[in-house]
Amino acid sequence: MTDISSFTAPRPRSWLDAFPWLKGAADPGADAWWNDAIDSADVSRERLAQISELAMARLPQWTIGQIFPGLAPDFDLYRMQLPARAINALRQRDYSQAGDLAGITLNTMLGWRHIGVGTVDAILQGLADASTSVAAPAVTMSDHTVHPTAQPPDGIPDWVSTLIDDLSQTATWYATIGLPGRSLLGAPLAHGVPEEITKARQRLEALTADDILVDGEADLDVAGLFDEALRALDHRAAQVLSARLFADDAITLDQLGKEYGVTRERVRQIEGKARSAMLGFLRDGGLLELVAETTRTLIGTLRPLDDLLTLTPALGKTVELAGKPAWRVLDRLDDTYEIEDGWCVAPTMTAVRAITQTVLQEKADKYGVVRLDSVDLIETSQPERLPELTASWLTHCGYIIEGDFVFTRTQSVGDYGAAVLSVAASPLSAQEIVDRFIIERSAGSLRNAMSQDDRFERVDRDRWALSEWGMDAYAGVRSLIRERVACGGGHVNLNDLIEYITGKYSVMASSVVAYASSPPFETRDGIVRLAGADRESRKSPERTRRLFRHEDAWAYRVRVTKDHLRGSGSVAPMAIASIVGLQSGQTRQLESPLGPQVISWTSPQPSFGTIRRFLMDSDIAADTDAFLILGDDGSFAFELTRELTGDALADALSLIGAPSTVENAKAREALAKAIGLPSESPLTSIIGGYRERGDSDIADLLTELRDVLEPGHQPERNTPSTDIDEIMDLL
């Protein structure tokens, strides 16, 4: 048995010598530049950039030690020619030697706070440059070789002779009856076909893999192939992989180093080299590569693990040398998808959760309610299970399921109550609504919230309806306006309305004006009437969350994720397709200062192509907010949002991408125009518009600013004479 401490490798002479994973991580059919010698400074700069890009795109879960297996742990990081921001990033985290970084995954590095993707790229290129002069430890390959199938025995097997006889007999029959072009197996047999022809056809259709493969070949499934691949490694290298990569709880490098009598850094290098060797088996054109490609195709974006195993049962069999099922081994080697909690997702769980959120936002009604049968996310070979699987996935994502519906906005009791009423489609008491909550809330707190929320109407002493239903209110200014509009034949003069209501009840004139200018009413030229029914579609840009109108463009606010930094595309709202004139199945390219930006609609949802070059250009870090700007002239631009300061007006303007230095009147106009409202719209209408489209963060800020942006507004005083019906309730 070869001792682990004897693993050595010659000084790298090619890129593949220094980075054994390059061939496995590269795209199929790519030019094999990794076999070139490392001898040209001009070419090296280009290659180092390619190595960094491949690592970020394909190896996010690998550690720095695995990506750069030949880098000495005592290498001084400050010897690298790095920009000041990269040096500062390392100093802030007390990383001075390569060994300090060795256990850090690339995904973790991409998530460092206030560190942009350009900084990470600079560090990776520096590490790659340092690695080209250090040899990677070799992983000794044993005499075992992976053979997908054995060589056929001498002579013709019996099944081949039978197959040829049956094919010849069937073909002769078709030629005899004048159908020489008929498919031998595809077309159904006609009535009256001779019995011997029928039996020949049955034998052909009944032929199985067991009939063809010789002893032992049928047993060599994907689990067996993985076992053979692991046997092709040195025994202890396979043990390191089993203990580190495939295990539920990985054994520490220190523990393995003590067990084998070597340093922890040597164990890390062996793990990286062995992992690269296993990755090579998935890219060598053999059966394991076919299984890997099939698995990626079956997973698509989202598929239950049990359904994947139904389609490919061998993935559920145990790989003996790893002590884990084949799907686990494949998942840990292939970074293009993740398998977690019984779900197969691509590319990451975070990305698929984001896709789910976007799809639900597109399909939700104004109360955040979506029918389960309208959600088409999951790949399954059992369509009858789709409702159950959809509910299970959405529950896994943290959404609340109510019968055949999913609630996407339940952060407040008001949002939750509106969703319950939307599904119930009839008035309910506060207690009846709370009884449907899966979280503990009191009927009193819900009642207080609904009484201050224009989405609700009290239609009895304690029965509540949605305002859009148009039911007569139990009491309140809105009911009085509706009554006067009806009496006036569908319209009433605003001044007359103010005089009537303020003369009869203790209600301020400003309240009458506010209610008369808000749904379900509108005020034009001093006349109050019910708002028209020709409202814009929910999926129009004006009603799409986080999408705002600028002077000559639309700006969509996004949160930069690690998937963006890696170069992945991202899901776009359906309204983006209408803005750029995109039809299903089409792709558009918008011009930008950094080259064409792709927007496509080749899957269920439109999507933005990668924006990584913009992030690299400005060294943007994860969790940064930015605007993707679609110009009316067909251009594309990337713009960072301003940091929130705690100033409600400045923050509201920052969230829509408007200048923060404008006066109050201009700010109010910008806030209205951003969501397609007239510039003179009352503040209550603006707040309602933001809240209805789902931008509650902005609506809450504007509520704080009501006294600032609506001069003359005074809160109504709560006097016993405000509402006659309230007095009657007390009697």
Describe the protein.
The chain is of the alpha+beta class and 731 residues long. Among the domains are: 4-131, no CATH class; 158-212, no CATH class; 222-345, no CATH class; 477-530; 541-640, At1g16640 B3 domain, CATH 2.40.330. It is 44% helix and 10% strand. The chain is built from 35 helices and 21 strands. Strands 14-15-20-21 form a four-stranded antiparallel beta sheet, with no helix packed on it. The chain has a four-stranded antiparallel beta sheet with strand order 16-19-18-17. A three-stranded antiparallel beta sheet has the order 1-5-4. Strand 4 (338-340) and strand 5 form a beta hairpin. The model is unreliable at 1-12, 143-153, 533-538 and 716-731 (pLDDT under 50).
